[in-house]
Amino acid sequence: MIVCSCNVLSDHDVRSALHPEGGNASSAGEVHRCLGCSRKCGRCMHTIRKIMTDAGCAAGHAPARVS
Question: Which superkingdom heads the taxonomic lineage of this protein's source (predicted)?
C-alpha cells in the first residue's frame, strides 16, 4: 500500500526504515530521511506513526501532553 504519495513510499518501505537491519528510524520524520526523501504535505505522518506503533516502536506514540 502506498503510504506517502508525494514520495511514493509504501508501507514496506516504512517498515524497512524501522528494521534494525534496514534502517534505524526512531520518529516519523526520520523515516523519510532514512529513505532519502523529505516530508512534503504531511498527510502520511499519521499512517507512518500507526505503522511504527504496530511494529512496536515506542517513537510511534505521540508524546504525552502535560496539562
Answer: Bacteria
CA 39 to chain centre: 10
AA letter at 38? S
pLDDT digits (tens, 9 = 90+) for 7-54: 999 999 999 898 766 677 888 889 999 999 998 999 999 999 999 988
Residue identified by cell 516502536 is: 57
Torsion region of 48: left, alpha or beta (phi above 0 gives left; psi -120 to 50 gives alpha): alpha
Residue 61 DSSP one-character state:
S
Q: What is the pLDDT of residue 58?
A: 52
